[in-house]
Design brief:
Jelly Rolls, mainly beta, 10 strands, 4-stranded antiparallel sheet
Length: 128
């Protein structure tokens, strides 16, 4: 059973009222930058959709220091999310997945102020 097959919409009594569409195929892309400079917004992941339209469902980011993660879709700002020294991992599940058409680029950028270069990674998860 895939991750997406376990997502259901339930009413207040717990009854499944509208199962989420089971995708034809998943889109999972991961990348990292081992030396993100301090104080500069730096691209950690870029993915240009080479084919069929898909829905961006989840963005995950992690690193060796607290930071601000920014997601761009086709060059437009979609979201910003900060992490803290207590919780340096970021997971953003979009309640309404973002439509990514053919040729559109998704960029995840990170900015931190550790004073020296740090390692960061990012993952996008979607479905067709």
């Amino acid at each position: 059973m895939s991750y997406f097959e376990r997502i259901y919409v339930r009413d207040s009594s717990g009854t499944v009222i509208n199962p989420t569409k089971i995708p034809d195929s998943n889109v999972i892309v991961q990348d990292e930058d081992l030396a993100v400079p301090s104080g500069a917004e730096t691209t950690v992941l870029t993915y240009s959709n080479p084919g069929t339209t898909y829905y961006l469902d989840t963005v995950v980011g992690s690193g060796r220091y607290n930071a601000e993660y920014t997601v761009y879709l086709g060059g437009s700002l979609v979201m910003k999310r900060r992490t803290t020294s207590a919780v340096i991992d970021m997971v953003q599940m979009f309640p309404r997945p973002l439509l990514v058409t053919n040729g559109t680029t998704v960029d995840i950028k990170v900015q931190h102020f550790a004073g020296s270069a740090r390692e960061f990674n990012a993952t996008i998860i979607g479905y067709r």
